[in-house]
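REQUEST ID: PR-0412
SUBMITTED BY: lab tech R.K.
PRIORITY: routine
TASK: structure prediction, single protein chain
INPUT:
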Amino acid sequence: MNEFKENLKNLRQEKNVGQIELANALGVSKGIISLWENGLREPNMQSLITLAKYFNVSIDYLVGLEK
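STATUS: complete
OUTPUT:
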């Protein structure tokens, strides 16, 4: 999921969403968002689904299987 961290950060920045705002929308801590964006932790399936819905993209896009 190396591309995940880049895709997440890019989506968040493109939508002008801060880490705190995204964390609140997902029901996780800001620290979790930071860990994901730095590649130190990966989200579980439920978090991937929530992220995909939030950004209106596919899970395949998030994890780098689709451009």
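NOTES: The chain has five helices and no strands.
REVIEWED BY: pending
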